[in-house]
Amino acid sequence: MEPPCLQNTTAKTLAMAGTTEPLLLLTPPQQRHRPSGYFAWGWTLAVAAVLVMLLLLAVAGPLRPRRLSGTPPETVELTLLTGAAEKGAVCLDGTAPGYHMQRGSGSGSKSWLVHLQNVREVLPKDCLTSKNPTECLFPAEIIKSIRTPMFILNSGYDSKQIRLNIAPDTSGPDKEWMSCKDNISNCNSTQIEVLDGGLSF
């Protein structure tokens, strides 16, 4: 007969030899008992990571180039305004008015250029004989061919011109132009002379 300590060992060995699967799945005691909030914390981190990714995609979306394909920009073909001539709305040369548009792209998408076609034909002929056509577009040349009655406003009296060009905030720390900028009737005689172009300061 075997001693009692060997009997227990032999029984344990026979039990282990019969099934080893449960023994393989056993984990150390410190890993078996996780804190109750462990899985909730993991889900919170996963949801937070997804939200951060969505936020980054939303912010980076406008930074991508708008047009990834090679499609041309939108255009509006020349469209003549029907019925405008009957109402007296005509171009300078008497033809029907019209419009067309081709959107810009890249850095020029927000910049606009107004192109006046066939303007040379309606510019003052005496100016064209002595000057470049681009010089004949300036008011000093166009006004020579204007016949009265005609009213031309001196842009120097425009409140925006006074604020931005004649007396900007940085030019007068003593604020002497403040009331004149707000209302032209508050200007003194010296300020009126400046607006008339007679004085410079």
TrEMBL record:
* Parts of the chain that traverse the membrane: 38-59
Main subcellular localisation: secreted
Source superkingdom: Eukaryota
Q: Coiled-coil regions in this chain?
A: none
Q: Which UniProt keywords apply?
A: Cell wall, Cell wall biogenesis/degradation, Hydrolase, Membrane, Secreted, Transmembrane, Transmembrane helix
Enzyme Commission number(s) from the entry = 3.1.1.-
Among its keywords, does the record have Signal? no
Extract the GO molecular function terms from the UniProt entry: hydrolase activity
Q: A Gene Ontology biological process annotation?
A: cell wall organization
Keyword Hydrolase listed: yes
The record's annotation in InterPro entries points to: PAE/NOTUM
Report the protein's function.
Answer: Hydrolyzes acetyl esters in homogalacturonan regions of pectin. In type I primary cell wall, galacturonic acid residues of pectin can be acetylated at the O-2 and O-3 positions. Decreasing the degree of acetylation of pectin gels in vitro alters their physical properties.
As for family, the record states: Belongs to the pectinacetylesterase family.
Name the PANTHER family for this protein: NOTUM-RELATED, PECTIN ACETYLESTERASE
Q: What is this protein called?
A: Pectin acetylesterase
